[in-house]
Structure formats: structure tokens, C-alpha cells
Design a protein that fits this description.
mainly beta; Jelly Rolls; Immunoglobulin-like; TIM Barrel; nine-stranded antiparallel β-sheet; 10 helices; 12% helix; elongated; hydrolase activity
Length: 927
């Protein structure tokens, strides 16, 4: 009721305003809310599923399943309820008498799927078929002015037009029902602009096609800048009795629009009749030019572009495809934060506000006519294509039109894209080669890159590196992107997909459902929780690329960098640095954080240069250097970390803190050595060298059964025990045939235990190199460690994590599944220096002496897809210290086909010479 009264009050004010204004503008009054966060209650009846067979209330706009009605359907679902759900809506509204004489339209921005609209019991027009397109009816003659009006809408979840179902309802995504986008009344003077198309090019040329209803003598054009100030001269053109005209002019000194520099202007059109301004429309526009050069590339404003893109569904877990302007802003900001410059609308046009945000914040958009393996018939498709293009044609962010997806292309519609679009934007067929652009999906690295090198089309996969669970996206991206960047015929590509499509099931106690492995494909979780690939993408797609370098005492502060911006000089960015010395278990060793700024060098787009960082004289006494680059808007591009200290140095600092004032003793008990030092008692098997048990005082620490090599022969033999001064040494013997892998334990009087393994991996090609131990997962509470984190890594997804000291509480998250808590606890963690295991019993620490040690924490629950491509690989045991780890595949590719980083590890030295063995040294502190 309050909402109704609010609408009436606003309406009265609106009518007074319209009557007094010199130039009337198109005005709206919403009958629904504007999005998922401010719905308006309408009367509602659902024919089947939840809460069926009774009149009640529902929020509009919404997907009725998320409001507790009907039945949830995924695109591949063929159950008996499909096609039978009908929703009936009723809503009363009042139009003041002052509105009489205006043209009044009722506008629906989107309805799933067939909508039959009545005003006061009379059909407003033919049933609209097609979900993702705004449609309107002129209801000027059907409404009562100064009285109540009844709006009735009957919505069929599945269309009576089978081509609509083929294009929209049989795809690989959730299917919903309802009035899912806003509904409003549109008020215009009888003489008004009815259609408007704009083409503003990079050379300042401006053309517009304008159609209008009623009588007008003249059309006036004004250009306003971002501050609303007049830009250039006002341009006027006589109509000469026509109802549609083309208006052309030119503007000087225009700021161009691009994803990097999204400069916008307001183009204001005014209809004039007998000297009076009768109607005015304003559109935000950007001046830019798109050219596809055959066998060359896609050029924006004369510059060849590599699209760093992602596919994006309009989606939110609690509201389905009903979104909001705030969500659009949130999504675009996340994409920009990942250093993306493009987005593909998968697989239908988005909300109008999403395109507006892409205009203002800067993203290249591929807008797509719905179609997923199936397509609209020509008559329906032509109508819906016009509905897609007319309200969005002025958006500078739209760079491409896509005619369906993956075979859902109606070839007869291609000509209408050109006919309806004044800008003649390029049209593509995702998953096919069309118009000189090859967009095939999910190419294997070798085939795809070979085609980039030897093919003839521009190559731009509209889907690649499918992100099922934790595979894809970041895994393989570094290999793909470096190849894409270096190949002239590549125009980049679009990752699949932005966020997991997990929907809140109101019929199942609000559990989040991804329909098994159909929906968990995102870089983000359902509520946009950041997964590990988020940060990998952010680094790989950074427009500032740092050359890999090591920190040594000889370093003088010079970093080789490459400018991968298209329009931005590096001198428009800012750089800052920070030095940190971590508290290595003793606060007296910590140093104050030092920080400063560096001058941004003058490096043109696509050029290389030098960044000079003036570090203090004592910089080498710190543990890590952080470098942060920010863009022209002071948004972080990325923060790179450069470790300064080495693991052996840190381990020695920690060991030096421990007092060596205890005596080490040992005895032979059966098949074991029993060693005592301080309160510690450990057992090591005499024959195998395996750690059997650990006890500190009365506390049993269940860390044991290691080291077990993975992969490699556990052929440690011939152990002897002896005291070397105050240190106990237990060591195996080397034999080239029988015991070529060796193990040595040292127990020091300070209570630390050193383990040194010299070993040869078991295979020439192998996923693993390292050792495993057992520890019950139920006993772990958290870890603190020094290394790269906090996200886990794979061999083909090493970028993204930052070097530091991290605390991670235990969770049992499997990527893409409940409870969606990130970062995941289980998995591989890079560059471990030390780790403290926080347990339900006694805590313990492990120090690494070797560089590039991976900490493996337990094993995620095994998951697979029907093609057996994803398959995450983990070693035996529970906790491992690895020197080589596996890569990961994705839904469409095995790990090895994602590029060089996806291959197995290779070790050449097999002569079983001890000097050629790999060496792994760890220190354990169980006290």
C-alpha cells in the first residue's frame, strides 16, 4: 500500500512537471521494483509446483522459483512439469487525469517466457514470445484516467513457440519463470522521438537516424561533456515533412572511448514544432571506431586489441536472473579488478544497466542473441533481434554482435544485424569460423596455438579454459596468453565463466544447487567468493608485465617491464614499494616496514622499458619486496612479491634461537630406534628409516609414517645410528642397485630433528617429486606458514599468490561446492619456508631448507567429469613436502593439453650417482 501511495504522489508531481516544462522528456513510472533488492508485491497464482493452485503475493521483478513457486529446472531437465507451469499476475494502478492526451506505453524489460498482457480485461497486444528482450504496448486507449486500472499478465514458463524453447530453454543453464525484469509505464508527448540510432566514430564524425511520431519542423542536436557542459556547436536539421531523417555532423577534439579510457558524452536530441520544444531525448555515447581487418585483427580506434574477456550470465543465487544496477556495478568492478577488458553476454542480452556500467567503467561487450545449439525461427528471431538492438544500439561498449551460441545460429538473421545496426558492428558465430574470425571453443593448446601460427583467420575463442571446479581459468592461462599475445592473428579470447551458477533452492531448505557439475564453472563462487584463479588472472592479464628476476645482493633496483596497455602510457600509472622482515618466531628479529614510491617511466603502449626502484642500503636484510602498480584511477593493477631471504637462511635463524642445552640419547627397542631429547620421544624404524611415532611429554603427536617417496623407490637400507659429538645421526647407505635413495636423520640437542632425503624420481616423466607423511585430518585446526599464499596452486597455475606469512583455518571446501569458503585449506601451497601445524593436540613446526618446496595439505575429495579431464591428482599420505607437483585439467581438456606448464615434470639424471640425486632437507620441531 505504501508503495502504491508513493507511486500516486510521484505521478501527481510528474504530471505537474510535464505540463509546465518547455521540452517534455520521456518519463517513467515503475509498476514493479527496479531490481532484486526492491521488489513490489503483485497478486500471483502458479499452476504447478511449489505453492500451486492458490492466489497469493509475489515480488516483482523476480524469478518465481526463488519466491517459492513452481519447480526448478536446469536446461537438460526433461521432467514432466516442463511446459506446464503458468503464472498469473494482477496489479492495480492509477493514472491521473492530467496524463490524458499523452502517449502511454507499458514496458516489460524481460519475461520468462510467453507473456499475454491485458489492461482492464482487454488484450494490450499479441502474446510476446522470447524472454530476454524488452517489449512494449501502447495502452493510451485502454487505460482509465483518474481511476483504477487492472493489469493482468499470464506467463507461460515454456513457450508455445518451439523455436523459442530451442534457443532459450534447452541450454546449459538454469531455467526460470516469471516477470524477471522491471515493468514500468512510459509517458511521451504525442509528438515524440520513437526510434534513435547513433554512430559516433573516432574521427569525430557523427551520424544518427531518427524516427518520430506526430508533427515536427526541426530536430536539434547538442553534445554535452561528462560535466554536462555544451561541447561544440548546436546542430539543427529541418524535417521537411518527413517522419524519419538522418542527421550528420562532425565534432573536433573529441576524447575517444575505449575500455581503458571510457570517455562519454551526452547526445541530446530535441524535436521542435512551430518554434516550441516538444520532446527531448538524451543518450550517453562514446566516439570510437571498430574495424576488423581480414587475416590481421580487430582494431579499436586504430589499435589492434587482444580481448581479455570472460563470459557472464545475468545471475544471483537468491534471485536467479533478476539482478540490479548495484550488482552490475559489482560485476564490472570485479572484471576490471582482474584486469579484464571484455565481457561476452552468455547467452542472451543483459539488463540495460549492465551495458550502461560497461560504457562508464570501460569494458568491450559482445552482445548475444539467445541460442544454444538451437535457434529462433527467422520470423521470431528477426523480431527479437530488433528488440535487442533498438534500445542498446547507442552503447559504445558493444563491439560485437553474436548470432546465437554453439550451433544456435540462424544464418538467415545475419543480414538483419547489418540492416538494423547503423554502426555495422562485426557479427560473429560463437564456436564457428565466420566473418574472418575463428571463435572455436576449448581448443587444446597445441592445436590452437598451431592454428594461430599457421592458420589464416583471426583467432578469438569465445569460450576457452572451462572453469569446472578448480580447473581451467587460471590453470593454463599463462601459457595460452603468452602465445595469444605474441601471435599477430590472435585477438585474445573469453574464459568460461565469470561465476558459479548456484541457485538457492527454496524447495530444499535453501541449499545452494549447481546441478552437480553443470553450474560450478566460475572464477567466483555463487555469491562472488574469490577462487584461486581470480588472482592468477589478475596477474597474468596485468597490463604491466614484470620480467622474472631473482633478488640478489647485486640487484640495483632496475626492473624490466613491458607495457601491455593499448592506449595508456606507463607514466599515467603509479608505483609504490614496501620492504618487510617477518617475525620469525622472535619479535627482536622483526624490522620496521619500509616503503616508498617510484617514478613511473615513460613507456608507450606495447613497448618495453625500465622501472627504477630506489631501495635503501639495507634492503637485502629484509625478507620480501612488494611492488604495487596502480592505474590512472588509482585502482590496484597488481602487487608483485619478490622474496629476498632464502629458506635456508630463515631456517638457520630459527634454529639459532633454540637452546642446545639438552642431551640426546637413543636405544634399540625391537625393530626401532627410540630417541629422547628434552621432553621428546620419537621412534624410527631400524630397517626402513620411517618415522613411526612422536611423543612430547604425555602428548602423542600423530605425525608419522614418513618419509615415503612419491614417486620413487623407498629403498632406504643399511641404517646405522651413532653420535656425532652431541648430535645423533641415523643414516642409510648408498648402493647404486639396491639403495640408491638415501635417508638421514639428525637429532640435535636443541630438540630439532633434521631429515635429509637424497632421491631419484621413479619415472622420467612424473607428476610428483617429494615425500609424504601421515597425519589425521580430523586433528588439524589451522596452519601458519611462510610462503606464497593464501591460495593453493597447481603446476599450471602458479601465478597469483603472494609471498608472506599466512594463517589458514581448516575448512573442507571443495571448489565449486558447499560451503564455498575460500581459500581452500586442502591442496598444494608454493614456496614453503616454514609451517606451524595448529592441531587439536600439540602444535608442531616444520622448516624447509630448500627453495621451491611445496606444502601439500591433505587431499580434496575426488571429483571427476564424464570425460575424465578434470581429475585432480594428489599423492598418498596426508601431509607432503614436494619438489614437483601436478597440473590440473578442466572440463574439456586433460592437464597435458593446456600447454607446456600442464605437462608432467621431467628429470634427466638416472645414472644413480649420489651427486645427481635430488635433495630435500626438512627440520621438525615437536617440542
Amino acid at each position: 500500500m505504501k508503495s502504491f501511495i508513493k507511486h500516486i504522489a510521484f505521478f501527481s508531481f510528474l504530471m505537474a512537471f510535464l505540463c509546465s516544462a518547455n521540452a517534455q522528456q520521456t518519463e517513467k513510472i515503475y509498476l514493479s521494483g527496479k531490481g532484486k533488492d526492491n521488489m513490489v508485491k503483485w497478486d500471483f497464482y502458479c499452476s504447478a509446483g511449489q505453492n500451486a493452485g492458490k492466489w497469493t503475493k509475489i515480488g516483482v521483478p523476480s524469478c518465481w522459483e526463488l519466491q517459492g513457486f513452481g519447480k526448478y529446472n536446469y536446461g537438460f531437465d526433461k521432467d514432466s512439469v516442463r511446459g506446464k507451469e503458468i503464472g498469473k499476475y494482477k496489479y492495480q494502478f492509477k493514472v491521473p487525469a492530467a496524463a490524458k492526451g499523452k502517449a502511454v506505453n507499458i514496458v516489460f524489460e524481460g519475461v520468462f517466457t510467453d507473456a499475454t498482457v491485458k489492461i482492464n480485461g482487454k488484450l494490450a497486444g499479441p502474446t510476446h514470445q522470447g524472454a530476454y528482450y524488452a517489449f512494449k504496448y501502447d495502452i493510451s486507449k485502454s487505460i482509465k484516467y483518474g481511476a483504477d486500472n487492472l493489469l493482468e499478465v499470464e506467463v507461460a514458463k515454456h513457450s508455445a513457440n518451439e523455436s523459442v524453447n530451442d534457443a532459450e530453454r534447452r541450454g546449459d543453464f538454469w531455467l526460470f519463470g516469471g516477470i524477471f525484469r522491471p515493468v514500468y509505464l512510459e509517458f511521451l508527448p504525442q509528438t515524440h522521438i520513437s526510434e534513435l540510432a547513433i554512430d559516433a566514430k573516432a574521427d569525430g564524425s557523427f551520424q544518427s537516424n531518427i524516427s518520430f511520431s506526430g508533427k515536427a519542423d526541426e530536430i536539434q542536436l547538442e553534445l554535452l561533456d561528462a560535466e554536462g557542459k555544451a561541447f561544440g556547436k548546436t546542430f539543427s536539421q529541418k524535417t521537411e515533412g518527413k517522419s524519419s531523417i538522418s542527421l550528420s555532423t562532425n565534432f573536433e577534439d573529441i576524447k575517444l572511448w575505449s575500455a581503458e579510457c571510457p570517455n562519454l558524452y551526452h547526445a541530446r536530441f530535441t524535436l521542435i514544432y512551430k518554434g516550441q520544444k516538444v520532446h527531448q531525448i538524451s543518450k550517453k555515447i562514446g566516439f570510437r571506431t571498430i574495424v576488423v581487418k581480414e587475416r590481421d585483427g580487430v582494431f579499436i580506434n586504430g589499435v589492434k586489441i587482444k580481448f581479455k574477456g570472460v563470459n557472464r550470465h545475468s545471475f544471483w543465487p537468491t534471485s536467479g536472473r533478476t539482478t540490479s544496477k548495484a550488482l552490475s556495478i559489482h560485476d564490472v568492478e570485479l572484471m576490471k579488478d582482474m584486469n579484464m577488458n571484455a565481457v561476452r553476454m552468455a547467452h542472451y542480452p543483459p539488463d540495460a544497466h549492465f551495458l550502461a556500467i560497461c560504457d562508464s567503467l570501460g569494458l568491450y561487450v559482445m552482445n548475444e542473441l539467445a541460442g544454444w545449439h538451437g535457434n529462433y525461427d527467422t520470423q521470431t528471431g528477426k523480431k527479437l533481434l530488433k528488440e535487442m538492438m533498438e534500445p542498446t544500439i547507442h552503447h559504445p561498449s558493444i563491439i560485437f554482435w553474436a548470432n546465437g551460441n554453439e550451433g544456435g545460429h540462424n544464418l538467415e538473421l545475419d543480414k538483419y544485424f547489418k540492416e538494423f545496426d547503423i554502426q555495422k558492428r562485426p557479427v560473429i558465430h560463437p564456436w564457428a569460423a565466420y566473418g574472418g574470425i575463428d571463435t572455436q571453443h576449448y581448443r587444446q593448446y597445441n592445436y590452437g596455438i598451431g592454428n594461430y601460427m599457421n592458420g589464416h583467420n583471426i583467432v578469438m575463442p569465445t569460450e576457452f579454459l572451462h572453469g569446472l571446479y578448480d580447473g581451467g581459468h587460471g590453470a593454463g592461462l599463462d601459457d595460452y596468453w603468452e602465445a595469444m599475445w605474441s601471435k599477430p592473428s590472435s585477438a585474445g579470447g573469453f574464459l568460461w565463466v565469470f561465476a558459479d551458477e548456484g541457485v538457492v533452492r527454496t524447495d530444499k531448505n535453501n541449499v545452494i544447487d549447481t546441478d552437480k557439475d553443470h553450474g560450478p564453472d566460475g572464477i567466483l563462487g555463487p555469491f562472488h567468493q574469490k577462487e584461486g584463479s581470480y588472482f592468477t588472472i589478475k596477474e597474468v592479464w596485468s597490463p604491466i608485465k614484470f620480467e622474472v628476476r631473482e633478488m640478489t645482493a647485486a640487484f640495483e633496483g632496475d626492473f624490466n617491464i613491458e607495457n601491455r596497455y593499448d592506449f595508456t602510457n606507463v607514466n599515467q600509472c603509479t608505483f609504490s614499494w614496501e620492504l618487510k622482515k617477518f617475525n620469525v618466531l622472535d619479535s627482536t628479529l622483526a624490522k620496521p616496514v619500509l616503503s616508498g614510491n617510484s617514478n613511473a617511466p615513460d613507456i608507450e603502449p606495447h613497448a618495453k622499458g625500465l622501472l627504477k626502484v630506489a631501495l635503501p642500503e639495507n634492503w637485502f636484510s629484509y625478507d620480501v619486496l612488494y611492488l604495487t602498480a596502480k592505474d590512472v584511477n588509482q585502482k590496484e593493477i597488481f602487487t608483485w612479491s619478490f622474496p629476498i631471504s632464502k629458506p635456508k637462511q630463515i631456517a638457520q635463524e630459527i634454529l639459532n634461537q633454540a637452546k642446545a642445552d639438552e642431551k640426546v640419547s637413543y636405544a634399540t627397542i625391537g625393530e626401532s630406534y627410540l630417541i629422547k631429547v628434552k621432553k621428546l620421544q620419537i621412534r624410527i624404524n631400524k630397517s626402513t628409516g620411517i618415522l613411526e611415532s612422536v611423543k612430547s611429554g604425555t602428548n602423542e603427536i600423530p605425525f608419522n609414517n614418513g618419509p615415503v617417496l612419491q614417486e620413487g623407490a623407498n629403498n632406504f637400507k643399511g641404517f646405522t645410528a651413532k653420535m656425532d659429538a652431541d648430535t645423533l645421526v641415523i643414516a642409510s647407505v648408498f648402493n647404486k642397485k639396491e639403495s640408491y635413495n638415501t635417508l638421514q636423520w639428525k637429532v640435535y640437542p636443541n630438540g630439532y630433528i633434521q631429515m635429509k632425503v637424497n632421491y631419484f624420481p621413479g619415472e622420467f616423466y612424473t607428476w610428483f617429486a617429494g615425500v609424504n607423511f601421515s597425519f589425521p585430518e580430523a586433528e588439524i585446526k589451522a596452519v601458519e606458514y611462510m610462503g606464497k599464499g593464501p591460495y593453493r596452486v597447481w603446476k599450471n597455475r602458479m601465478k597469483g599468490p603472494k609471498f608472506g606469512v599466512w594463517h589458514k583455518d581448516y575448512n573442507d571446501t571443495e571448489t565449486g561446492e558447499i560451503p564455498f569458503v575460500y581459500p581452500e585449506f586442502r591442496g598444494y601451497h608454493a614456496n614453503m619456508y616454514w609451517c606451524k601445524f595448529l592441531t587439536k593436540g600439540q602444535d608442531f613446526k616444520v622448516l624447509a631448507e630448500d627453495e621451491d618446496t611445496f606444502l601439500r595439505l591433505f587431499t580434496p575429495a575426488f571429483k571427476d567429469d564424464k570425460w575424465h579431464n578434470y581429475v585432480p591428482i594428489f599423492p598418498k599420505g596426508d601431509i607432503s613436502f614436494m619438489q614437483a607437483i601436478p597440473s590440473i585439467g578442466n572440463k574439456t581438456q586433460i592437464a597435458e593439453s593446456t600447454g607446456p606448464m600442464g605437462q608432467k615434470n621431467i628429470f634427466y639424471d638416472y645414472e644413480k650417482n649420489p651427486e645427481r640425486a635430488k635433495e630435500l632437507t626438512l627440520y621438525f620441531d615437536f617440542n
